[in-house]
UniProtKB/TrEMBL annotation:
Organism: Malurus cyaneus samueli
Domain Ig-like: residue ranges: 8-103, 108-193, 201-291, 296-381
Localization in the cell: Cell membrane
Pfam families, alphabetized: fn3, I-set, Ig_2, Ig_3, Neogenin_C
Phylogenetic lineage: Eukaryota, Metazoa, Chordata, Craniata, Vertebrata
Protein name: Neogenin
Disordered, as annotated region: 1004-1047, 1088-1110, 1124-1156, 1189-1222, 1238-1297
Superkingdom to which the source organism belongs: Eukaryota
GO cellular component, one term: plasma membrane
Topology with respect to the bilayer: Single-pass type I membrane protein
Parts of the chain that traverse the membrane: 1054-1078
Compositional bias ranges of the Low complexity kind: 1263-1278
Length: 1401
């Protein structure tokens, strides 16, 4: 056969198992098919038979084996055994058949003989005659030496015994059995006597009990169950305790004497069979098992495979059977012995590694179990490499080196061949082998041009030889010279601890035990036991000296996984596998939630509740225990309900009586705590439901653009039951749509309507009898353009029932108690209840809640019938506001005062984002990692962990770890290997634990002498400019322009000259002004300076090492008054919690320009406060603290946090000016800026400064404010308090936002983009002197030229907790023309004069 085509070669007939007798002839059938007739041989018990000189055994022409005159004696059994047919085609290979068993029946002998017996007339008898199983088919019975004629009353069991039922006098006589095998052999004779019916009942006795059987599908099974007794016993059968249908069933038949026969056994018949014998009042039972065994069958057969030398292949083989089959593989008739290159993988598959030509041939999968065997085969053809097509082949790859050598893997890198130095279109094959072994394996690179590969699954401490071959479209080229590399030894670390076991000793503890590891030199120093709650991602660990440990403080009835790592002097060893165990259950630790009562009528009350919170159930809830009593009595009634039921109707109560109820949850361990008693009073008289409700007493409609708000009041006659209301509506007719609502509801918003359309609306009350008389109303929806009042109303509409003329008093004392990261309990009092706060009527409360971020979130509501409610499903670390209203019949209250609560923190649920890696200029072995905090921080980030490795697939505990404090968003990693790809991941941590990891980011270190390549992590087109850390210096000449192409040297130099000159001129002017100011300082200012030291700019001006003092910009509060807080009419009242900062470093400018809708922005910043908080601000002269606002010329910060920012820790109250890598700084490094931002401010600097001014202060200033200015600024935003209030804890100024220009922020930037430089900004504060010219200060800090930026909220001192996306700056290339610069300078000079005027004033 030509190479490259598979040749059909298979068995047409395979030998089957045979039962024979001595002296008989036997044929074992076998025939194989192939184009070339195969040679057939036979094996017996694994050894080839020599049939040439054998006179008894011969090979028939079709390949079958004939055995003449089978030989079999006690000591000589040459023919019994296992036979296998072997077919061979010379140039092709060999295949083997299944093995067939030849059994020879032994000499006829009886293992038990018949014995004399007696039977009552009509009863059953058993005559024993047991022989070997293979002789049983040859056994027959004789009565009075005549062959017994077959009849239904007589039955020969498979064992040989005779069962006779319904005996009559003719059955008496002598019986014997005979075996017809090589002559006939007879047993002894035994007499059967038939007795007349006895006078009294005889007790039951079992003559033949069933015994357990094992059968194959398709065979039949017989279970005897013969008993004697009087009256004649009856027999019935069950399987697995279910009655068996023996009447009329084709497969289950009840034969003579109660014997059960199962025909055509199926796998589903397996089980326990019980016969039940009954006679009078007597009963007997006997049991036996039926085991159904299944020979092996193939679910997946091996498939033919083509392959090249050095490749790895897998033959698949999937088998099933009972018992589970074992599998062995045969190649060309010989058993495959597993080795390094022939491996059994995934239970039964055969993997061949590093193919060589001699591996060609036929491979067979042979499956075998106790009841049979089967084989299936496939052919392997090894192809010669295709001859190269015409064209040049690549030369050998150059510089093959092992860049990473571990115990079990090696990373190789190389350079493309000299013939193709770019190598973009080349693929590579890496051939490798153990030294001294002639089998080469091959690994191919995954994509064209790739010049590295990771070779996995090597053996430790072994020498391997590697060579690399490049391949182009013409074919493979030259091989590189062989490279020898030895893997590292693995013995120094401990292996996994064997026999790890875990069991729960109590509901809160688990004991874990293990044994000493077998491998690893050096003594074990200690063990680390890691454990983790199932479904969580953070492992905890504990150091253990011994071989067991009990972990306590676990959650009840919760699954945990445990693993153990042994440590010796070299470090941690291999981890054990995880063992999972669930802690024991216990009684619930919390009561059921939200118990509500609904009075149904005068005799029944419906209870409804929610299960206890998930973490407190401590087991499977098996049910609930309800206790109730009359309020006037002390004794109570208990009623239990099943596990999943969450409501119960308590009936049979007395009318007009107040009852108290409480509910407790139960587990198998007992009953947990009960809820508080909740009371309700049954109705005095049952409402009438014999007729429909009357017409509702009123109906109001309020049209909006695409919706109509409908509100109503119930029918006047309250004696008829109302189950709900039906609202019909449609254009011109009310019958187009119908909506049904609850009887408690008094309002509804019909949504999705057409604008400017005439709708007719109908309202009917209904009960179980039917619908009442309708009430009609019509309304025209507003046109699209009309938006008056819409926003206001939509927010309030779904929750504000139309109040009656006499509204109820709203609940008071609303309090929010935080229970967990997603649960808050709301409690309140109701002044319209008696002093004991007992609810005796059918009132209910509505609780509503929302978070303030984002501003337009909708309220959620829930109803409660008690004075508390558990709100669940909240977001972690988020401020919520809650309010409550009460409804009783037709009357409702307004909403109560709001209560606020911030949920607890939770571990971060998203990874840090925007992870980027850049090389450090001038230090090619140092890289800088930058990132942004996670979107879902769920709390204050306290730290980050950077993981890095050269192998992206390594186990995470094999990566190198670098911890970083939480307020850093950049980190340097040093001493990396040059020209090596590394992978980086980052994980954030808060006080609750570790969050998930970011996706791996790849970065290749530079080659050393080269400058940083533009591609590696630099801010090219579309990527965000990096946050490069405090000491990062971009290259002067080749820094990238915003579009990724290096700027020409001419441009750069020109730019440098302009920037340097602007910087120098600015500094000179500022210095001159500062000196001028200092001279003219009055004594008043000197005193003030003593109290508040001069301000040092913590950011050095770029390119100059001197600190330049910007002028003090004080805003005088002496003339400002603080208005009392009043309620905002705005639908979303905005309250800004602003405690006084400890010093002005903590002051956070409020930004109203972040959002075009100023009214919807919430600003809530917090700082710690203590008694000395007024130190430099107010402590000296009893004056009101002055407030200094540095307004930064930085871009909008992407930080208005989606979660409130918690109070900052006092020890951290300082700017890390250089090192605090806030996201805003990312933008400051404009691509054209060749100098670093600044350096960190030292602690000594900070001691003298009350404020760190970032870059240039930018705000519109004024002389000291006059009374007029005080009026203008009557409602300032910002943290200040009159000096009388010396607060304990954080004081809060609740201030309502007024017109945006009245706040202390720079005016809002229109959404359209930056200011037009020609227009002066509106001044923040009114100027005092009418004639004084208005100046807008416009700063252009170098690096952000050409863009006046709105102020930025600076969150101090930690990095922002959660980001919102910010508008990216569209115009990334803009710089001043020379004439613009001249204008700018003139502008700056004017500014300085102004500043001077302020200072002197």
């Amino acid at each position: 056969p030509g190479v490259g085509t598979f040749t059909p070669f298979y068995f047409l007939v395979e030998p089957l198992d045979v039962l024979s007798v001595r002296g008989a002839s036997v044929i074992m059938n076998c025939s194989a098919h192939c184009e070339t007739p195969p040679k057939i041989e036979w094996k017996k018990d694994g050894t080839f038979l020599n049939l040439v000189s054998d006179d008894r055994r011969q090979l028939l022409p079709d390949g079958s084996l004939l055995i003449n005159s089978v030989v079999h004696s006690k000591h000589n059994k040459p023919d019994e055994g296992y036979y296998q047919c072997v077919a061979t085609v010379d140039s092709l290979g060999t295949i083997v058949s299944r093995t067939a068993k030849l059994t020879v029946a032994g000499l006829p002998r009886f293992t038990s003989q018949p014995e004399p017996t007696s039977v009552y007339r009509g009863g059953s008898a058993v005559l024993g005659c047991e022989v070997a199983a293979e002789l049983a088919p040859m056994l027959r019975w004789e009565h009075e030496r005549q062959v017994l004629a077959p009849e239904p009353r007589l039955l020969k069991l498979p064992s040989g015994a005779l069962v006779l039922s319904n005996a009559s006098d003719t059955d008496a006589g002598l019986y014997r059995c005979a075996i017809d095998s090589a002559g006939t052999k007879y047993s002894d004779e035994a007499e059967l006597r038939v007795l007349p019916d006895p006078e009294e009942p005889q007790s039951l006795a079992l003559l033949k009990a069933p015994s357990s059987l094992s059968r194959l599908p398709g065979q039949s099974a017989v279970f005897p169950c013969v008993a004697t007794g009087f009256p004649t016993p009856s027999v019935r059968w069950t399987r697995n305790e279910e009655e068996l249908p023996t009447d009329g069933s084709s497969r289950f038949q009840l034969l003579a004497g109660g014997v059960l026969e199962i025909r055509d056994v199926a796998e589903t018949d397996a089980g326990t069979f019980t016969c039940i014998i009954e006679s009078g009042n007597d009963t007997l039972e006997a049991q036996a098992e039926l085991i159904v065994q299944v020979p092996p069958t193939f679910l997946k057969r091996p498939a033919n495979i083509y392959a090249h030398e050095s490749m790895d292949i897998v033959f698949e083989c999937e088998v099933t059977g009972k018992p589970t089959p074992t599998v062995k593989w045969v190649k060309n008739g010989d058993v495959v012995i597993p080795s390094d290159y022939f491996k059994i993988v995934k239970e039964h598959n055969l993997q061949v590694l590093g193919l060589v030509k001699s591996d060609e041939g036929f491979y067979q999968c042979i499956a075998e179990n106790d009841v049979g065997n089967a084989q299936a085969g496939a052919q392997l053809i090894i192809l010669d490499l295709a001859p190269a097509t015409a064209g040049p082949l690549p030369s050998a790859p150059r510089d093959v080196v092992a860049t990473l050598v571990s115990t079990r893997f090696i990373r190789l890198t190389w350079r493309p061949p000299a013939s193709d130095p770019q190598g973009d279109n080349l693929t590579y094959s890496i051939f490798y082998t153990k030294e001294g072994i002639n089998r080469e394996r091959v690994e191919n690179t995954s994509r064209a041009g790739e010049t590295q590969v990771m070779i996995q699954n090597l053996m430790p401490e072994t020498v391997y030889v590697f060579r690399v071959v490049a391949q182009n479209r013409h074919g493979p080229g030259e091989s590189s010279a062989p490279l020898k590399v030895a893997t590292q030894p693995e013995v120094q670390l401990p292996g996994p601890a064997p026999n790890i076991r875990a069991f729960s000793a109590s509901p809160t503890s688990v004991t874990v035990s293990w044994e000493t590891p077998l491998s690893g030199n050096g003594d074990i120093q200690n063990y680390k036991l890691y454990y983790m709650e199932k479904g969580q991602h953070t492992e905890q660990d504990v150091d253990v000296a011994g071989l067991s440990h009990t972990v306590t403080g676990l959650k009840k009835f919760t699954e945990y996984s445990f693993r153990v790592v042994a440590y010796n002097k070299h470090g941690p060893g291999v981890s054990t596998h995880d063992v999972v165990v669930r802690t024991l259950s216990d009684v619930p630790s919390a009561p059921p939630q939200n118990l509500t009562l609904e009075v149904r009528n005068s005799k029944s009350i419906l209870l409804q509740w929610q299960p206890p919170p998930a973490g407190t159930q401590s087991g499977q809830i098996t049910g609930y225990k309800i206790r109730y009593r009359k309020v006037s009595r002390k004794s109570d009634v208990t009623e239990s309900v099943g596990g999943t039921q969450l409501s119960q109707l308590i009936e049979g109560l007395e009318r007009g009586t107040e009852y108290s109820f409480r509910v407790a949850a139960m587990t198998i361990n007992g009953t947990g705590p009960a809820t508080d008693w909740v009371s309700a009073e049954t109705f005095e008289s049952d409402l009438d439901e014999t007729r429909v409700p009357e017409v509702p007493s009123s109906l109001h409609v309020r049209p909006l653009v695409t919706s109509i708000v409908v509100s109503w009041t119930p029918p006047e006659n309250q004696d008829v039951v109302v189950r709900g209301y039906a609202i019909g509506y449609g254009i011109g007719s009310p019958h187009a749509q119908t909506i049904k609502v609850d009887y408690k509801q008094r309002y509804y918003t019909i949504e999705n309507l057409d604008p400017s359309s005439h709708y007719v609306i109908t309202l009917k009350a209904f009960n179980n009898v039917g619908e009442g008389i309708p009430l009609y109303e019509s309304a025209v929806t507003r046109p699209h353009s009309d938006t008056s009042e819409v926003d206001l109303f939509v927010i309030n509409a779904p929750y504000t029932p139309v109040p009656d003329p006499s509204p109820m008093m709203p609940p008071v004392g609303v309090q929010a108690s935080i229970l967990s990261h997603d649960t808050i309990r709301i409690t309140w009092a109701d002044n319209s209840l008696p002093k004991n706060q007992k609810i005796t009527d059918a009132r209910f409360y509505t609780v509503r809640w929302k978070t303030n971020i984002p501003a337009n979130t909708k309220y959620k509501t829930a109803n409660a019938t008690t004075l508390s409610y558990l709100v669940t499903g909240l977001k972690p670390n988020t401020l919520y506001e809650f309010s409550v209203m009460v409804t009783k019949g037709r009357r409702s209250s307004t909403w109560s005062m709001t209560a606020h609560g911030t949920t607890f923190e939770l571990v971060p649920t998203s990874p840090p984002k925007d992870v980027t890696v850049v090389s450090k200029e001038g230090k090619p072995r140092t890289i800088i990692v930058n990132w942004q905090p996670p979107s879902e921080a769920n709390g204050k980030i306290t730290g980050y962990i950077i993981y890095y490795s050269t192998d992206v697939n390594a186990e995470i505990h094999d990566w190198v770890i670098e911890p970083v404090v939480g307020n850093r968003l950049t980190h340097q990693i040093q001493e990396l290997t040059l020209d090596t790809p590394y992978f980086f991941k980052i994980q954030a941590r808060n006080s609750k634990g570790m969050g998930p990891m970011s996706e791996a980011v790849q970065f290749r270190t530079p080659k050393g002498n080269l400058a940083r390549s533009p591609s590696s992590g630099s801010a090219g087109k579309g990527s965000r400019p990096m946050d490069l850390g405090p000491d990062y210096k971009p290259p002067l000449g080749g820094s990238n322009s915003p579009h990724g192409s290096p700027t020409s040297p001419l441009d750069s130099n020109m730019l440098l000259v302009i920037i340097v000159s602007v910087g120098v001129i600015t500094i000179v002017i500022v210095v001159i002004v500062a000196v001028f100011c200092t001279r003219r300082t009055t004594s008043h200012q000197k005193k003030k300076r003593a109290a508040c030291k001069s301000v040092n700019g913590s950011h050095k001006y770029k390119g100059n090492s001197k600190d330049v003092k910007p002028p003090d910009l004080w805003i005088h509060h002496e003339r400002l008054e603080l208005k009392p807080i009043d309620k905002s009419p705005d639908p979303n009242p905005i309250m800004t919690d602003t405690p006084i900062p400890r010093n002005s470093q903590d002051i956070t400018p409020v930004d109203n320009s972040m959002d075009s809708n100023i009214h919807q922005r919430r600003n809530s910043y917090r700082g710690h406060e203590s008694e000395d908080s007024m130190s430099t601000l107010a402590g000296r002269r009893g004056m009101r603290p002055k407030m200094m606002m540095p307004f930064d010329s930085q871009p909008p910060q992407p930080v208005i946090s989606a979660h409130p920012i918690h109070s900052l820790d006092p020890p951290h109250h300082h700017f890390h000016s250089g090192s605090l890598a806030s996201p805003t700084r990312s933008f400051l490094h404009h691509q054209l800026s060749p100098w670093p931002l600044g350096s960190a401010m030292s602690h000594s600097d900070r001691a003298d400064s009350t404020e760190s001014v970032r870059n240039t202060p930018s705000t519109d200033t004024m002389p000291a404010a006059s009374a007029a200015a005080g009026a203008e600024l009557s409602e300032p935003e910002g943290p200040f308090v009159p000096p009388e209030e010396e607060p304990q804890g954080p004081p809060t100024a609740h201030v309502r936002p007024s017109h945006p220009l009245k706040s202390f922020a720079v005016p809002a930037v229109p959404a359209g983009g930056p200011f037009d430089p020609a227009l002066p900004s509106t001044p923040l504060l009114t100027q005092q002197a009418p004639g004084h010219p208005v100046h807008a200060v416009k700063t252009a800090s170098i690096g952000t030229l050409g863009r006046s930026r709105p102020p930025m909220p600076v969150v101090v001192p930690s990095a922002p907790e959660v980001q919102e996306t910010t508008r990216m700056l569209e115009d990334s290339e803009s710089s001043y023309e020379p004439d613009e610069l001249t204008k700018e300078m003139a502008h700056l000079e004017g500014l300085m004069k102004d500043l001077n005027a302020i200072t002197t004033a």
